[in-house]
Write a structure and sequence with these properties.
The protein has one domain. Helices cover 24% and strands 10% of the residues. The protein is an alpha+beta fold and 78 residues long. A two-stranded antiparallel sheet has the order 1-2.
Protein backbone atom coordinates (compact mmCIF):
# COMPACT_ATOMS: atom_id res chain seq x y z
CA UNK A 1 0.00 0.00 0.00
CA UNK A 2 1.29 3.46 -0.90
CA UNK A 3 1.94 5.81 1.99
CA UNK A 4 4.01 8.95 2.48
CA UNK A 5 4.97 7.87 6.02
CA UNK A 6 7.79 5.30 6.13
CA UNK A 7 8.90 3.17 9.08
CA UNK A 8 12.20 1.53 9.94
CA UNK A 9 13.48 -0.57 12.80
CA UNK A 10 17.02 0.35 13.88
CA UNK A 11 19.37 -2.08 15.55
CA UNK A 12 19.22 -1.90 19.35
CA UNK A 13 22.39 -3.01 21.05
CA UNK A 14 22.07 -4.81 24.37
CA UNK A 15 24.74 -2.41 25.67
CA UNK A 16 22.85 0.82 24.91
CA UNK A 17 22.58 2.94 28.07
CA UNK A 18 19.12 4.29 27.12
CA UNK A 19 15.98 2.35 26.27
CA UNK A 20 15.74 2.03 22.49
CA UNK A 21 12.98 3.37 20.28
CA UNK A 22 11.97 0.18 18.44
CA UNK A 23 10.22 1.79 15.47
CA UNK A 24 11.24 5.10 13.92
CA UNK A 25 9.37 6.94 11.18
CA UNK A 26 9.85 9.67 8.63
CA UNK A 27 7.71 11.38 6.01
CA UNK A 28 8.56 11.60 2.31
CA UNK A 29 7.41 14.44 0.08
CA UNK A 30 4.71 13.69 -2.54
CA UNK A 31 6.79 15.22 -5.34
CA UNK A 32 9.25 12.30 -5.03
CA UNK A 33 6.66 10.01 -6.61
CA UNK A 34 5.65 12.19 -9.57
CA UNK A 35 8.33 12.14 -12.28
CA UNK A 36 6.93 15.11 -14.20
CA UNK A 37 4.11 17.59 -13.79
CA UNK A 38 1.31 16.35 -16.02
CA UNK A 39 -0.96 18.93 -17.65
CA UNK A 40 -4.38 19.52 -16.15
CA UNK A 41 -3.57 18.78 -12.51
CA UNK A 42 -6.32 19.75 -10.10
CA UNK A 43 -5.57 23.10 -8.42
CA UNK A 44 -6.50 24.64 -5.11
CA UNK A 45 -8.43 27.90 -4.97
CA UNK A 46 -5.78 30.69 -4.65
CA UNK A 47 -6.64 31.41 -0.99
CA UNK A 48 -6.49 27.71 -0.09
CA UNK A 49 -3.25 27.34 -2.06
CA UNK A 50 -1.60 29.95 0.16
CA UNK A 51 -2.75 28.01 3.22
CA UNK A 52 -1.60 24.65 1.80
CA UNK A 53 1.73 25.98 0.50
CA UNK A 54 1.21 24.63 -3.02
CA UNK A 55 -1.09 25.31 -5.93
CA UNK A 56 -1.60 21.67 -6.90
CA UNK A 57 -3.59 19.23 -4.79
CA UNK A 58 -1.31 16.32 -5.75
CA UNK A 59 1.67 18.02 -4.09
CA UNK A 60 -0.11 18.84 -0.83
CA UNK A 61 1.18 16.92 2.17
CA UNK A 62 -0.27 17.74 5.57
CA UNK A 63 2.49 16.84 8.01
CA UNK A 64 1.30 15.53 11.35
CA UNK A 65 3.64 14.45 14.10
CA UNK A 66 3.04 11.12 15.82
CA UNK A 67 0.91 12.59 18.62
CA UNK A 68 -1.34 14.57 16.26
CA UNK A 69 -1.78 11.49 14.08
CA UNK A 70 -2.90 9.37 17.06
CA UNK A 71 -5.36 12.06 18.19
CA UNK A 72 -6.85 12.27 14.68
CA UNK A 73 -7.24 8.48 14.49
CA UNK A 74 -8.95 8.41 17.90
CA UNK A 75 -11.36 11.16 16.84
CA UNK A 76 -12.26 9.32 13.63
CA UNK A 77 -13.02 6.12 15.58
CA UNK A 78 -15.34 7.91 18.02
Amino acid sequence: MFTLRKYWYPYASPFDPCPPIPCKQYVTAPNLYINFQPPGLQQFHPKNALYAGTLWCAFYDPYFNVHELKMREENEDA
